Amino acid sequence: MVAVEPREHALGGDAPDALRVPDDPGAHRVEEVASPEGFAADPDLVHDFYDARRAALDRVEPNAAHRALALLERRWRDEDRGDVVLVTQNVDDLHDRAGSSDVLHMHGTLRTAWCVACDAHPEWTGSTNGAACPGCGAVALRPDVVWFGEVPRHLDRIEPALRRVDVFVSVGTSGAVHPAASFVQYALSRRAHTVELNLAPSEGSWLFRDSRLGPATRLVPTWVEEMLDR
Ligand SMILES: [Zn+2]
């Protein structure tokens, strides 16, 4: 099973929502802080922007939707019912903290840095600005977040998972950011059952056999309960 998942919390989801936190409602244009060109033009601004979001992780906690997906994975594994592959566009670590064991962060993570000199992705706290890579020593770290125009991560693992998916659930995605938006079409071609749990109908709503509207914190735990009782 593949779950593509929530953005209904402080740091989640497709950009530009991914870049918005409650105490900083969109002070920057997305191109300034989420593109290679923006980083080249003003690296200090971009380091500061992601440093602040990395620090903000300490002030958010996994919600009921994160916890429910972790429970589903654990129960299905324990009962030998199948794998839950969790693909997220969120750059926070809330799924990981909720207990999901193998989260595929398509758009990178705030908890790691990226050394452009040696291509390492070391775990990171604090600032990336002016810091040396623990691997090669170069002062060449950037935020480990996929920006506009860059290639999403883990497609080599996501595509095989989609080829064997039997239940596909999309949570809290707009359906507008590719390639994630096309995942449901892969799933449909595999005759998977497709479920959408969303605040509002997405652009591709018609591709889902089961479409439910509401907050993820309510819909996901209910859906997980149904899956566990099946
Ligand atoms: Zn390095």
Write the topology of this structure.
Layout: E1 2-4, H1 30-33, H2 36-41, H3 43-56, H4 64-78, E2 85-88, H5 94-98, E3 103-105, E4 108-115, E5 141-145, H6 155-163, E6 167-171, H7 183-189, E7 193-198, E8 210-213, H8 216-229
Parallel strand pairs: 1-2, 1-6, 2-3, 6-7, 7-8
Antiparallel strand pairs: 4-5
Helix pairs in contact: 4-8
The site of zinc ion has 8 residues, from loops.
Concise structural overview:
With about 230 residues, this protein is an alpha/beta fold. About 30% of the residues lie in helices and about 15% in strands.
Helix content: 25-40%
Query: What is the CA-based Rg, rounded?
Result: 18 Å
Heterogens = zinc ion
- Per DSSP E runs of 2 or more residues, the count of β-strands stands at 8
CATH topology of the domain at 2-14 and 62-110 and 151-229: Rossmann fold
Q: What is the correct CATH architecture of the domain at 2-14 and 62-110 and 151-229?
A: 3-Layer(aba) Sandwich
Structural account:
The protein has 230 residues and is α/β, with parallel strands linked by helices. It has a domain at 2-14 and 62-110 and 151-229: TPP-binding domain (Rossmann fold, 3-Layer(aba) Sandwich), CATH 3.40.50. Helices cover 32% and strands 17% of the residues. The protein has helices at 30-33, 36-41, 43-56, 64-78, 94-98, 155-163, 183-189, 216-229; strands spanning 2-4, 85-88, 103-105, 108-115, 141-145, 167-171, 193-198, 210-213. A six-stranded parallel β-sheet has the order 3-2-1-6-7-8, with helices on both faces. A two-stranded antiparallel ribbon has the order 4-5. α4 (64-78) runs parallel beside α8. The longest helix is centred in the first third of the chain and has 15 residues, at 64-78. It is globular and about 50 Å long. The structure holds zinc ion.
